[in-house]
Automatic annotation (TrEMBL):
InterPro entries: PH-like_dom_sf, PH_domain, Znf_Btk_motif. It comes from Chelydra serpentina. SMART domains: BTK, PH. SUPFAM superfamilies: PH domain-like. Residues 22-129 form the PH domain. This is IL2 inducible T-cell kinase. GO terms for molecular function: kinase activity; zinc ion binding. The keyword Membrane does not apply. Pfam families: BTK, PH. It comes from the Eukaryota. One of its GO terms (biological process) is intracellular signal transduction.
């Protein structure tokens, strides 16, 4: 048996049989609900994030219990990964936000410190820089209360307002 780092439990099978299953990063972070439906609540959840060569997955982890998968994003579906620059008061414990735009959804993740955020943004950008669905432009600030704080557009899927550089931040490996 081998220890599965994703679920935090023993598994009969080898978890790292292929390179795609190997863990690049793992850490407890906070995420905002993606609000995939119009009626979805806006809330923040502590989740255990695991990045592999193929996916960004997040798990619920209650003390002493097996982790349960809550969501998983195929890296090939990611269109943009960037730091969020904002003047708003961050409504959760972790104060360093970044964004992952995928499909027609937007995931906001909050890291506990600058270094952690830099590691996630750096590694995610490295792994997605050659995707063929990247956006030419993105929104540097939050989508909040029905509008973009950067450009005041009122459509969540409105085109971004500043150029997205998939190689920026990706040249220097963070500590
Ligand atoms: C849920 O709220 C959780 O925040 C989900 O996050 C989130 O899914 C849901 O949003 C949101 O409705 P309740 O727990 O109060 O039901 P998690 O999966 O981490 O538990 P996302 O998509 O953010 O994973 P939508 O977007 O699925 O409606």
């Amino acid at each position: 048996r081998v220890w599965d780092r994703c679920t935090g439990s023993w598994k009969r099978t080898v978890p790292c049989q292929t390179m795609n299953n190997c863990v690049l990063l793992e850490e407890q972070l906070i995420k905002k609900s993606q609000q995939k439906r119009r009626t979805s609540p806006s809330n923040f959840k502590v989740r255990f994030f695991v990045l592999t060569k193929s996916k960004l997955a997040y798990f619920e982890h209650r003390h002493g219990k097996k982790r349960t998968l809550k969501g998983s994003i195929e890296l090939s579906r990611i269109k943009c990964v960037e730091i969020v620059k904002s003047d708003i008061t961050i409504p959760c414990h972790y104060k360093y936000p970044f964004q992952v735009l995928h499909d027609n959804y937007l995931l906001y993740v909050f890291a506990p410190n600058r270094e952690s955020r830099q590691r996630w943004v750096f590694t995610l950008k490295e792994e997605t820089r050659n995707n063929n669905n990247l956006v030419p432009k993105y929104h540097p600030n939050f989508w909040i209360d029905g509008k973009w704080r950067c450009c005041a557009q009122t459509e969540k899927l409105a085109a971004g307002c500043i150029e997205y550089d998939p190689t920026k931040n990706a040249s220097k490996k963070p500590l």
